[in-house]
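Attaching the record inline, Q. Sequence:
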Amino acid sequence: MNEPQLHVGILMDPQLIFTLLAPYRTDRKEVSGKQTATYHEGRILWQGMLYDELLFSPIHQAMDAFELADVTIGIHFHWERKENQRFLGALKIIVDNGKLTAINVVNVEDYLTCVISSEMSANASLELLKAHAVISRSWLLAQLHPVKGVLAPPAPTETDDETIRWYERDAHTRFDVCADDHCQRYQGITRATNVRAEQAVAATRGEVLTSNGNICDARYSKCCGGALEEFASCWGDENFPYLQKGRDCLTDAVLPDLRLEAEADRWIRNTPDACCHTHDEKVLCQVLNNYDQETTDFYRWTVEYSQDELSELVRQRSGIDYGVITDLLPVARGTSGRLTKLRIVGTRRTRVIGKELEIRRTLSPTHLYSSAFVVDKADGRFTLIGAGWGHGVGLCQIGAALMGEQGYPYTDILRHYYAGAKLTSLYT
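Structure, as predicted:
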């Protein structure tokens, strides 16, 4: 196959303000400088004319860039903010759901150089960047080329007593992927990519992980908390041979069965050795950009609510009035100790919720770091003691950073987190 082009959804707003930093072609003319496009009666108003769609194409694909104003990053996370961002490639504007959507049309390899600089620091070790280039490429192309003959996963379910919900990229119908954590962080050339990031992408050009002849759906998260989770705990009820449970350490230490409540409780309340159990700033700053570094405790963490605070928070986040919440009870856990089902007990209603992200969204104004937590109750307060940051499936970014810093090649890093997967070249 040839290198694909990608449509990345960047920003949705009634008005888009952007600057073409070099001459771009559109509507059979060249245009540059600051521009404003506005939603108007179902169409795009730009320079006094109405359009159904606009495409601004660079004259020099590898050099020309545009800047979008007020792009939101960290959507619904505790560090959500707006910033101006710059992108290579074309800018496409469409009308969608009463707003305008800005889409960056970009070559996959250019996209990946920006992804690994957005997901982590471009100053990370070369082997970590190479590993991340492979998994980001694998995840992306697996979404664009789903396995033929595989049935779609079952839809989320909701009954009077239970809500089981998960979130996938199929929410995007007008572009391939979004630019935020829902898919992969992509902030264009805003995070100054350096020679090392470019080297990592070039050195692995076209390389993906495969299993049984299919491109691997190579998931990853920030910090697994010492144990890897299985796919079915977080998304559809299926598992993949390369996304399996395991202990994130470089010894033969055995992972307890964290699906058992007593084992999960012991694991989460302690700090077992793991690749991602590190306070080494040299390692952490490779993975954590400046806004991520506002989160200091994530291998093990604590969140505390009063009973009234918790009851009101859950009512606001879920839209369900449980009354006064009297208990949070584990129902089912995955292989990393992450809760996949949680029973919320209230004076007016009791209900089971899942999967892991639904639990994290319900019990925090933004997101809990993870659903691997146990609950202590005392003096009218609920204390959540937790482990890890993210879903814990596949590569652990902080653990992989430690391996890279210790000199492990990217092939070993990939082998550690995606057991049995093969490295395959799709294009050169």
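The chain has a mean pLDDT of 91. The radius of gyration is 22 Å.

More tomorrow.
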